[in-house]
Amino acid sequence: MDMNFLEFEQPIAELEAKIEELRMVGNDNEINILDEIERLQKKSKSLTESIFASLTPWQVSQLSRHPQRPYTLDYIARIFDDFEELHGDRAFADDHAIVGGIARIGGRTVVLIGHQKGRDTKEKIYRNFGMPRPEGYRKALRLMELAERFSLPVVTLIDTPGAYPGVGAEERGQSEAIAKNLQVMAGLKTPILCTVIGEGGSGGALAIGVGDRVMMLQYGTYSVISPEGCASILWKSADKAPLAAEAMAITSERLRELGLVDAIVPEPLGGAHRNPAVIAANLKKALLENLASLEKVPLDKLLEERYQRLMKYGRYLQS
Amino acid sequence: MSWFEKLMPSRIRTDGAVKKGVPEGLWTKCPKCEAILYRAEMERNQDVCPKCGHHNRIGARRRLDLFLDADSRVEIGSGLEPADPLKFRDSQKYRDRITQAQRATNEKDAMVVMAGKLKGLPTVVAAFEFSFMGGSMGSVVGERFVRGVNHALENNTPLVCFSASGGARMQESLFSLMQMAKTSAALGRMRQRGLPFISVMTDPTMGGVSASLAMLGDVNVAEPDALIGFAGPRVIEQTVREKLPEGFQRSEFLLDHGAIDMIIDRRQMRDRLSNLLAMMTQVAPPTAPEHPRSSQARS
User: Are B182 and B140 in contact (CB under 8 A)?
Assistant: First the structure.
């Protein structure tokens, strides 16, 4: 089984393997093998199209956590012209699960903050699987306040399973760190543009996710708890994660319908990891459009609209 | 009747039902020290065990009763009821869970908010109802809290919130998560206006509630030995694969680590907080009226 293909993509993986095999043979003889390859490639594409036309929320959840999916630093390399990373919370440590700094995009300067996951085992551990500790949120807060001082818009890229559940994290006030960010972001005197690029895992995601616009990449997910976590509490079994994914409405499409997300950034066929150049271009376009429109809003109005938008969250009945 | 009972002479046979002369609920057992206590005594003691000082969980209305002056209480947001925006269903429908919780608690949702007076000082007080779906924060809890904040802003009064919650309500999914942002943003307005917010964390205050409104007090208070934290102890234990330290995530632990300002015994809560708020808002120390005696004050 090819590591690049998820379980539900296995029919595609098999076709691709066949194509690869033919290519190996093809070098010695007959020309019609090329036709055969072309035929199979067409078939692979249409198969991918049909599989991706009706993904279940659980499949989307797997895509959002795909091991090859582009992470914050990949987007920084592809989208931003300059990036000076700034480190540390000035109190305890530099959290590698959140990266931040000053960056240039399309001629304007922004403060960029994003969760960062690791690719191989060593890097995964270094990045703590993208799960920040309080110092990560406090670094983010420090950078947001810096952005406010210099009137730079804040761009956040969200991709985390959640805030790290550890002893040290609790000792250093994980709850307070998250809560503080929510409050400060709600009133930060500069535009904030948030995008869920992968996994939007609960409070750990929201802690850099309060802003004037919230976008999601097409196959990103955003939820109050992971499907596995929800399933193990409500269904008493983590195996029921596909049901929990369905019930919780975690996909960009559902969240857009529910008015919790403002815009969806389309992904290339097969997901962001199949064509990082395309997704980076799509994201760049969306960021630039939104930065341009947010810049035009007077600050008072921007803050009032941000506040009212937060106050509107929630569905209830009134008698 | 069993064969053994049949063998017994009728004069020593007794009817089990008649023998139980003690009315239901006259006695209660402290879950901590297991002392058998007279229930009325426990209630007089604000549900704090007179033997060991264990703070038992109490409901939202009782909390407000114990805390606020008996007169001039107005409930805020009582007309709000939970919706089911996702038609959520796990092993049970969310709708049914709501109905059951409403029947069991006689509340519409997991928070009660009242404007009233604290020893004469106008104050808005919010209290979580833990027995309503674990005090979980969904849209109604968030909206009631915000209406409480708005009432405080309009009337220039302080706000006090008693938290008791497992966190966000999963059945409302991202709507619940957003209540964290909503309540925190609203508290930001209190801060801008220089109106005090005192957060009192009671057992338990976890997850999305801890990581939003509960930790944002100008003064953070906890009741003794309350479980307070972001991630649940079981989740942490599974992640780090080691035994958690003694007293981990308890009030005393949080005080030691600088997360809260003080621990206050429930029986002193009214005196201490009224005095604290009077100092913060620079008014004369409160004197009257005397402590309302729990349930009598309601009727």
Answer: no
With CB atoms and an 8 Å threshold, state whether A310 touches B182: yes
Q: Hey, are the CB atoms on B177 and A233 less than 8 Å from each other?
A: no
Q: Is the CB of residue B215 less than 8 Å away from at least one CB of chain A?
A: yes
DSSP per position, B127-160: EE-TTTGGG-B-HHHHHHHHHHHHHHHHHT--EE
Cα–Cα distance for residue pair B82/B266, rounded to 1 Å: 30
**Which residue matches tokens 């993986």?**
A13
Q: What is the C-alpha to C-alpha distance for residues A210 and A228, in angstroms, rounded to an integer? A: 25
Angle, CA of A61, A66 and A67, to the nearest 5° = 150
Q: Among residues 158-187 of chain A, which lie with CB inside 8 Å of chain B? A: 163-167, 169-176, 178-180, 182-187
- The model's pLDDT over B141-178, given as tens digits with 9 standing for 90+, comes to 999 999 999 999 999 999 999 999 999 999 999 999 99
DSSP state of A251: B
The span from the CA of A151 to the CA of A189, in Å, is: 8
The string of pLDDT tens digits covering residues B62-79 is 999 999 999 989 999 999
- This model of the complex carries an ipTM of 0.95
Q: Test A173 with B80 for CB contact under 8 angstroms.
A: no
Angle, in degrees to the nearest 10, between helices A57-64 and A241-248: 100
Helix axes A241-248, B173-193, angle to 10 degrees: 50
Q: Which residue of B has its CA nearest to A319?
A: B79
User: Which A residues, 206 through 225, put their C-beta within 8 Å of a C-beta on chain B?
Assistant: 206-207, 209-210, 222-225
Count the neighbouring beta carbons within 10 Å of the beta carbon of residue A102.
19
